[in-house]
Amino acid sequence: MSQISSFEGTIISLILLLVIWDTVWKIIALWKSARRNQLGWFIAIALINSAGILPIIYLILNKEKPGFQT
């Protein structure tokens, strides 16, 4: 019985960590895409749940260039 509870606690913890991970990356990417008026990226990032993968791809593809102000 305690093994089932321990397993459930582990699963809940993993899901919570994944939600936090995705939320942090999504907020950063949404902020930057909104500041740059990139509506397509903003909509895609807001609607697609990708465990943080899509926001990370956006941030890599849209790195700040030297002298570029956001």
Characterise this structure:
- This protein is mostly helical and 70 residues long.
- The protein has three helices and no strands.
- The chain has a domain at 21-65.
- The N and C termini lie far apart (54 Å).
Defining traits:
70 residues, mainly alpha, 74% helix
Short description:
By secondary structure, the chain is an all-alpha fold. 74% of the residues lie in helices and 0% in strands.
* Strand composition percent: under 5%
Radius of gyration: 17 Å
Tally the helices: 3
| Number of E-type strands | 0
Low-confidence stretches: none
Helix content: over 70%
- What is the molecular shape? elongated
Order of helices and strands: HHH
Mean pLDDT figure: 85
From the N-terminal CA to the C-terminal CA, the straight-line distance is 54 Å
Q: Which structural class should the secondary elements be placed in?
A: mainly alpha
How is the biggest beta sheet arranged? Answer: none
Topology overview:
Blueprint: H1 2-35, H2 39-47, H3 53-61
Helix pairs in contact: 1-2, 1-3
